[in-house]
Amino acid sequence: MPDSATVERTDAELIAAVLDGDPASFEPLLKRYQPRVFATARRYARRESEVEDIVQEVFLKAFHKLRGFRGDAPFEHWLMRLAVRTCYDFLRAHQRSREMSFADFTDEETEWLDRFVANPADASENAAAARELVDKVLAQLSPAARMVITLLEIEDRSVKEVAALTGWSVPVVKIRAFRARAQMRKCLEKLSREKYL
Amino acid sequence: MNMAELQKKLLAAARANPPSDTVPYGFEERILAQLAAKPGFDILAAWNRILWKAAAPSVAITLLFGAWTRFAQRTDTSPETLAADLENSLYLPFDNSTETW
User: Fold this and answer.
1) Distance from CA of A1 to the nearest CA of B (A)
2) Is the dihedral of CA A177, A183, A189, A192 positive or negative?
3) What pTM did the predictor assign?
4) Could you give the ipTM of this predicted complex?
């Protein structure tokens, strides 16, 4: 028979224990899900101190709102909804109004774009410059546009999943996705006009 | 420049490079310490909670008294009762014979 201490407790058992007044039972939940929440937060915040603040807020909210978790969906889904909404609040609070110009690009990023203009097939999407470039372009988008592009296009989620995560309705997600793609294209067009026309 | 192609390429770059899921050392201790710290008493939040809790009973009591008042008025508004009340009120000063002034 296995030792009871070594048996991993399920999310439901841990949540029940926390609600019964044992806050220490929150620690295994925290350890189990913090890598996922960190990965999500890093999609929206660049500085590590900001990422840590977001994750901290997510788990503090989760602890205090745990009574509101009904258990009809997995805890992970509930927590990720909380994480996405906290990230959205972060984006809205840290909205940058400064427009990006070519002067903001590093030599590697400019080189990658030059390679793309010469021959799109030569510009690899695995290049670090492409990674940095997409981060800078995404930072130019509105919070809603950035959120919907990240969830739909980068994380490859369905419209329904995005609606569940953000709390927006399905038609709102579709409209915001359409506007977000247009906004991103406009941002790229502006940059290309500045440099190549 | 082909914008649609550039957009596709940049999104593919973001997809190909998911962010790291590493957790800084000792991060969970920081959260648990925050949870262990006793939160300060927020008087506004407490007042807000009390008001919300009182809202439903207040509405129920208002409805109950409203209904009762309406019902009570209906039973008392028979023409005889009204006439008797009016007569009593009018003749009250003349009936009061104990007054000496």
Assistant:
1) 31
2) negative
3) 0.72
4) 0.79
